[in-house]
Amino acid sequence: PYFLSPSTRTSTTPRALLPSPPWTWLRRGPRTQGRLFGGCLTVVARIQGIAHISPSWKDKIMFLESATAEADMTKGNPLARIRSAFADLAARGVFDEIAGLVVGRAYGYNTERERAEYAAVIQGLLCKGRLGASTSFPILMNVDFGHTAPIVTLPMDALAVLDSEKDEFSIAEAVVV
């Protein structure tokens, strides 16, 4: 995988592999399955406001990842922007419809403390308060997809399973990649 250099905006060298923190369950829930759909958090949040292109999230296993900060490609999006994007999706009722959530390893959040702060934002919005009381879908964190290396490719619209009791995230059908 190659990455744009902030100074030249070109890429000729592979990205360095980063140590992978373990995938963790932010919230355990019942075994669920659904079609995978998602992408970059800020883009997904933005398109939710456009009725003609906003997808149906009914029974989907949503996957979201965060990209680089717009001002500095060496850093991740600030927590305020992450919180705002998740809050926008919650306000539009997306989390009332999905079957499960898979969150990619956050770009630029490389220390244990930074990852804990990132998880706390999601936990505060989705696991506590009104929304946390009304939903029970499982949430899997730190999965290696998105703006990271190494990277897992998630096949869009493939049938997937989340089972926190078995500690399992799997693709349940053959797909063409």
Automatic annotation (TrEMBL):
<keyword id="KW-0121">Carboxypeptidase</keyword>
<dbReference type="Pfam" id="PF17676">
    <property type="entry name" value="Peptidase_S66C"/>
</dbReference>
<protein>
    <submittedName>
        <fullName>LD-carboxypeptidase</fullName>
    </submittedName>
</protein>
<keyword id="KW-0378">Hydrolase</keyword>
<feature type="domain" description="LD-carboxypeptidase C-terminal">
    <location>
        <begin position="33"/>
        <end position="160"/>
    </location>
</feature>
<dbReference type="InterPro" id="IPR003507">
    <property type="entry name" value="S66_fam"/>
</dbReference>
<dbReference type="InterPro" id="IPR040921">
    <property type="entry name" value="Peptidase_S66C"/>
</dbReference>
<dbReference type="GO" id="GO:0004180">
    <property type="term" value="F:carboxypeptidase activity"/>
</dbReference>
<dbReference type="InterPro" id="IPR027461">
    <property type="entry name" value="Carboxypeptidase_A_C_sf"/>
</dbReference>
<keyword id="KW-0645">Protease</keyword>
